[in-house]
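#lab-general

N.A. 3:47 PM
ok so I finally got the sequence cleaned up, no stray characters, all 124 residues accounted for. can someone with queue access submit it? mine expired

B.Y. 3:52 PM
send it over

N.A. 3:53 PM
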Amino acid sequence: MFPDLKLYEEIIFLESYFKGKYVVENVIPFYEPLIQAKKRGRHLYWTNFNLPNSLNERKNPSKFIESGSKPNELFHEIDLSSYKGKQRKDKIACNLVDYEAGKTILETALGIIRKKDIKQTELF
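B.Y. 4:20 PM
back already:
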């Protein structure tokens, strides 16, 4: 299996021409990434802004079970029982990015500061 260069085409295009903020995500591949990325959990992120060291406080299921998708469905709070597509349900559920991580990335890009992240004592 070879690296999918479409991923790197997208990253190079964004780095070279895009004027806004961007983030590209991929599960950590078996090979060394061709373009350096930020590692968070089981994922790599290419961004033009700084990501926090921790993207969420939720604990991933300790064991991803290949023979079924239920543990991952419960963790991601989704139901794939009505899915009729060709992709395996367990593969879909295993490759999802935690929605809390997505929310943290969006808030970081927008400059939203959560009250729990402030290290200053309140006056009132």
